[in-house]
Amino acid sequence: MKKLLTLLVAAIMAVACCLGLTACGKKGISKDELKVGLICLHDETSTYDKNFIDAFKAACANKGIKEDNIYIRTNIAEGAACYDNAADLVDLGCQLIFADSFGHEPYMIQAAKEFKDVQFCHATGVKAHTEKLDNYHNAFASIYEGRYLAGYAAGLKLNTMTDKAVDNNFKVGYVGAFPYAEVKSGYTSWFLGLRAALADGYTATMDVTFTNSWYDFEAEGTAANTLISCGCVLISQHADSMGAPNACEAAGVPNVSYNGSTASACPNTFIVSSRINWVPYYEYCIDQMVGGDAIATDYTGTLGSTIYTGSVCLTELGDAAAEGTAAKLEEVATALKNGSIKVFDCAKFTKDGAAVDTYLADVDDDGTYQGETQVIKTENGIKFFSESEYRSAPYFDIDIDGITIF
To answer: Treating both helix axes as pointing N-terminal to C-terminal, what angle do 243-251 and 217-229 enclose, rounded to 10 degrees?
Structure first.
């Protein structure tokens, strides 16, 4: 009996070790054997997907992953095709699979539930912390800080355009893809950064229009032209084509783009672009796989040592940026990192004329669209909306005063 019990315990411990449930030793994957896959909504003609693809290639090269073990699938719709491609990548031997678009999430979860020995990592998703699968993970970054900085650069530009202000108010525009929290968080942080940079005595209001598509060159260009015709003197966007930047260049309207520089195509109007640098996350996941360590359920990348490093970064400034912008942005970035500036400082915005002192955000995203998590906090004497703390993807969805949905 004692011998049987010993054998039983040994068997349980062996299974536990394989599952990573004990400290009896980690079993990683050799980087020579690791196969990785990336599923993209579009291809490199989309600034959004190009940002992921470039980072994926760079991270794999940095970590010594063999080219033959790297698989990239492009133009994969947010539907069953995502699951089909994930399953195909599993058949090809991939142990680590990424997807880059919000609508891929249910199909990545489906694949994770079926292929339990494969790790699935999904950017911009929201359900990893509630699904509680050991092999399904979400990732994002505090891009609201990057957008705040890009907005600050826009505000500094407006300070040189006082002839465009009407009664000391600048009207700016924003081309958004969808009225999702991710987009609202982005344009609100950009607008707050812009207002923070304005010279004393000046204010700003913003018109936002949605294309209801992540990538639609014609619709994005039309949206930008509509905003310009309505008096917007500076345009930014959360949309993935060159439609809006090209429209701004043609009209001579300054532009803040997203996910990459448009300086070569729009030399006269490009100010700056914020983007998520996915290289650190891809490298982290590869390291975890090689080391036999767990990948974080929710990963939130942050600003680096300068505004050009880290998971949240800015491009080099364009010729349209105001003089002195670079030094000022480094100063503001330092304040963001040490907490002396909070992007969603409740003293800096109102909703329907009232301060926001409490707010239940829809962090768990269970389909009811009801908030359940208190996200207003106080640190360093600042009351603020705490974005990306309770999950990596944004959940700021407050329609603040000064922004009009056009």
So the answer is: 40
